[in-house]
Amino acid sequence: MTSKQANGLTPRQLEALCGRWPGVTRDIKWGADLVFSVGGKMFVVTPSDGSEGGRLSFKVADERFLELTDQPGIMPAPYMARSRWISVTEPQRFGTAELQALILDAYTLVRAKLTKKLQVELGPIPTLKAGRK
User: According to CATH, what is the number of the domain 11-122?
Assistant: First the structure.
């Protein structure tokens, strides 16, 4: 039995993933970029129309920044690299589950910088369902 691994992440899939997480808001910024934020702080951005090859930009942990940007299809995010954001310029090179896990990590990192009070109000950190991670 062979199963084909799903690759990439469309704006619709991103919406389905992040849209149910506590405190997440979605917005269109800079004309056509779909931006997901928690507590008013961005954690992932993608072109809303799927252009630019479906590029995904998001926050990563400091210790993963160099490791990830050394991979083909990933670069430091323009204007945001000093804040340890990466840009996945070729999302089709990566499994959907891997991208989902990285985006959940981005949400968790940004959420951890919110006030303790707001973190408590948001409730438990979401997890990915088995088979999605």
Answer: 3.90.1150.30
pLDDT tens sequence across 18-50: 999 999 999 999 889 999 999 999 999 999 887
pTM for the full predicted model: 0.90
Contacts of 109 (CB under 8 A, 6+ apart): 43, 59, 60, 61
Q: What does the DSSP assignment read for 13-39? A: HHHHHHTTSTTEEEEEETTTEEEEEET
Q: Residue 83: helix, strand or coil by DSSP?
A: helix
Pairing of strands 74-76, 56-59: unpaired
- Six token digits for residue 6: 């799903």
Query: What is the spatial distance between Cα 5 and Cα 100, in angstroms, rounded to a whole number?
Result: 13
Domain ranges of the chain: 11-122
Residue 91 sits at φ, ψ, to 5 deg, of: -60, -25
